[in-house]
Amino acid sequence: MSTPVSSDRPFLNRRLAAFGTTIFAEMSALATRTGSINLGQGFPDTDGPAQIAEAASRAVLTGLGNQYPPGPGVPELRTAIAAHQQRFYGLAHDPDTEVLVTAGATEAIAAALLALLEPGDEVIALEPYYDSYAACIAMAGAVRVPVTLRPHAGAFALDLDELRAAVTPRTRLLLLNTPHNPTGTVLTPAELTAIAELAVERDLLVVTDEVYEHLVFEGAHTPLAGLPGMRERTVTISSAGKTYSFTGWKVGWITASPELIAAVRSVKQFLTYVSSGPFQYAIAEALALPDSYYDTLRADLAAKRDILADGLAAAGFEVFRPQGTYFITTDITPLGEKDGLAFCRALPERCGVVAIPNQVFYDDKAAGATQVRWAFCKREDVLREAAERLRRL
Ligand SMILES: Cc1ncc(COP(=O)(O)O)c(C=O)c1O
Model-level pTM? Predict the structure, then answer.
């Protein structure tokens, strides 16, 4: 037997030894044990539209998708995804060759990175990053190169010079996320244009995670794939979980050129092959919901953002009011605190609320040491109660 690389997980391979249990599992368990309000994990506490839930139950009862659906996804859903890209962004996609349905955005990220990277390739990811990015880059045997979003004038900003300087001859891929979890930053059209020019100039592939595309409170979401030169080098990822509040259904998708889709599909077929059969039909209906659905979702979440942001500010946190997503990042320094992880571990006992320390999303732990993330995709009464409890700090 080889030498164990991790004392509590002796059989885990070296590529993944650094990845412990996710912080979400730890904090959700803490929430349950202490009966706290869980603003840690980002799932809505209210289900999505009843008509979409009914569509899913109808699909099950009428035998739609109960057996293995087609590998790329059911045609109804692929057609609806293509229509969505056309409707919201004016981007034309062939549902047969340029759309791939996945088991949530999580599988899309894994399949894309495993398909497109060679061992040793460098991947530039915006830090703080969604936790599966680092693990999937490691699974691909690639090297992650973080570019840190830094607080500036009340928001987290990308330093384009730092991004340019991070590209080396070994860089294969940029892994983007906009709107950005956990900071709530939405990259501006000017930033996206600069990123696109860099990708073209240095011949890089881009995987862009746009799962919060419909949760933009200021300005509009700009898909990177629509910018000059990007169509043939961009893999765009989205998910029904965030837009329709059915995170447990795990229906995600990729849109890209036929060549990129073919590469990702080759990996995806050996990960899950297929998933979420009946839910795929329901999400096909969801994608066709009228504009009023999307407007209400956004307005509802903007109001919730304001309740929690105001509550956090009143409790003494420095608040970075997000432009998008359903997360708020705060800084705990004004409370005299220095370590977000210790703060989050103690918070349930102190006032019955659970949050996530952003430092787990950083390679540069010092850069995120005092940041804490709060999810506001919860009922208004829950958010008001959380704000009330936080005042005790
Ligand atoms: C940035 C980002 N990407 C991907 C995901 C995962 O999406 P899914 O549940 O569709 O796998 C999440 C979920 O929190 C996320 O925040």
Answer: 0.96
